[in-house]
Helix-turn-helix transcriptional regulator
Amino acid sequence: MAIDQDELAGSLRSWRDRVKPAEAGLPGGGRRRAPGLRRQEVAQLAGLSVDYLARLEQGRATNPSPSVLAPLARALRLSDDERAHLFRVAGQAEPAQGAIKRHITPSVQRVLDRLTDTPVMVIDASWQCVTSNPLAYALAGDTSALPLRERNVAWTVFTEGPTRWFRTEAEERLLRRELVSDLREARSRYPNDRLLAELVDDLMSASADFAELWEQRPDRQPNSGSMTFVHPEIGPVTLDCDFFTVRDSDLRVIVLTAAPGSEAAGQLDLLAAIGLQQFS
């Protein structure tokens, strides 16, 4: 597909002007030449360089990849139709039928914006972490700059990658069975999802336990309704854990809460007050 640089440039500028700073969790003070976000703000939200975003908006960039377009769509709070338009004019194929929908819609983003006093994470059907709010990053560690594969929960669990999530042996076994069951179901529902297929293939090679469980076809068994994180400064933090599935999508919103007045609630208050300034 050919890139339509003029339409891409114009669309990006129009969408950027449309988003109010407050909607993106940014301060709205100071004089602004345009009503929406500054270019530097969009670049920061999307994890891009300001220079590259400038070239996109000026019609000077060629062949932006899906890994660039997806975070841009989230930063600009595009609808599904607008996201599809972004991919088309950028010369990229729209997300295929039979592939996991990983796009954070504006309505889901508003939920994340409002839940500032509790950790919230969003994962897809492959247990890929799509995004988290600042308090979740403060609790579990900021993984936003890691490669995609290292942000996948199944990959981290079966390759025993670094994590602050503490699990007993029994909880670990239940989790592994749950992950394999979910990935098997996802493969049947999303046969054209390249990232999912590559994840399963790589896990089969990297983990003998995953390969064995995959062949066993385990049933999904409910795990504990809580999660414990061992924070390097605060220590163990145990929180109630609830999963919510987004309608017309397979995104799952994980909300971690603490009973009012509990020790965990006090620990969350401390994290909310200090945030990521001292904790990494």
Summary: The CA atoms of residues 61 and 129 lie 28 Å apart.
